[in-house]
Design goal:
Shape: elongated
InterPro entries: DNA-bd_dom_put_sf, MerR-type_HTH_dom, MerR_fam
Number of helices: 11
Largest sheet: none
Order of helices and strands: HHHHHHHHHHH
Radius of gyration: 31 Å
Distance between the termini: 89 Å
Strand content: under 5%
Keywords: DNA-binding
Structural class: mainly alpha
Mean pLDDT: 83
GO molecular function, one term: DNA binding
Low-confidence stretches: 252-256
Protein name: MerR family transcriptional regulator
Number of strands: 0
């Protein structure tokens, strides 16, 4: 039979047959006097076996020994494949769980799922679209900076902020911060910082006491660059004053 007939009977393409020849899993028959390759039933059986092995996820490079019955560790290979598939299933299950959590809160797919429910509550508490976007961007950056170890603590911090009695205050202070501009006075900035500290001191103390501690000092330049690009002069001034007030919550080294 010619290659086209072999391809039809086995359910593969002629191109696939050529690839099998190229990688060495299917011997290439000599051409007959008419210039065509002539295949037989044994070739058909071998192609069917190749398809079966491929359906199990066995790479073509591993097939020659199996096809020629010279692989003494066929069970070992199957065990490897099973372990690999189990890992893929676990990974896919985790991905589906993350997607479900994001869908439950109508969250964007680029948000950390651990923070998504709290950001949804903040958005529903009256934040403007601009502040919702700002919260999202800041959360993506913070989640990256704290890393996997710090993310549970950050999520706990967000959970405290999203409590029913606190979420509206978060929204109100966030909007006051957003309104800072050229016409804002130093009194406006100072009052905002005082209200912030009065409202959030207990939450900040808990966050500062997290174990292991969340250390962002090494990323201060990055955070500063972000603030310079996003905020206006009055907002940056407010952040500088807030930074000074937050210093009291950071542990200081004991004198030597």
């Amino acid at each position: 039979m010619r290659s086209s007939e072999l391809a039809r009977l086995s359910g593969v393409t002629v191109r696939a047959l050529r690839h099998y020849h190229h990688v060495g899993v299917l011997a290439e028959p000599e051409r007959r006097s008419n210039g065509y390759r002539e295949y037989d039933v044994q070739d058909l059986i071998r192609v069917l076996r190749i398809k079966r092995l491929a359906s199990l996820g066995i790479p073509l490079e591993r097939m020659p020994d199996l096809l020629d019955d010279s692989d003494d560790d066929a069970q070992g290979l199957l065990n490897e494949l099973d372990a690999e598939l189990a890992g893929q299933i676990d990974h896919l299950t985790t991905q589906r769980d993350l997607i479900a959590r994001l869908r439950d809160h109508n969250a964007a797919p680029d948000l950390p799922p651990e923070l998504a429910p709290f950001l949804a509550l903040f958005a529903a508490s009256g934040l403007s679209p601009e502040m919702v976007k700002l919260d999202r961007d800041q959360s993506v950056l913070l989640a990256h900076l704290v890393g996997e170890d710090g993310l549970p603590h950050l999520a706990s911090f967000y959970q405290r902020l999203s409590a029913p009695g606190l979420a509206p205050k978060v929204a109100a202070i966030s909007e006051r911060f957003a309104q800072l501009g050229p016409d804002s006075t130093q009194r406006d900035v100072s009052d905002l910082i005082e209200d912030f500290m009065t409202t959030f001191t207990a939450v900040i103390e808990d966050f500062a006491a997290a174990e292991p501690p969340i250390e962002l000092a090494a990323t201060a330049d990055l955070v500063s660059e972000y603030a310079s690009a996003i905020f206006n002069e009055q907002q940056r001034r407010a952040l500088e004053q807030l930074e000074g007030r937050l210093d009291e919550f950071r542990p200081h080294p004991l004198p030597g």
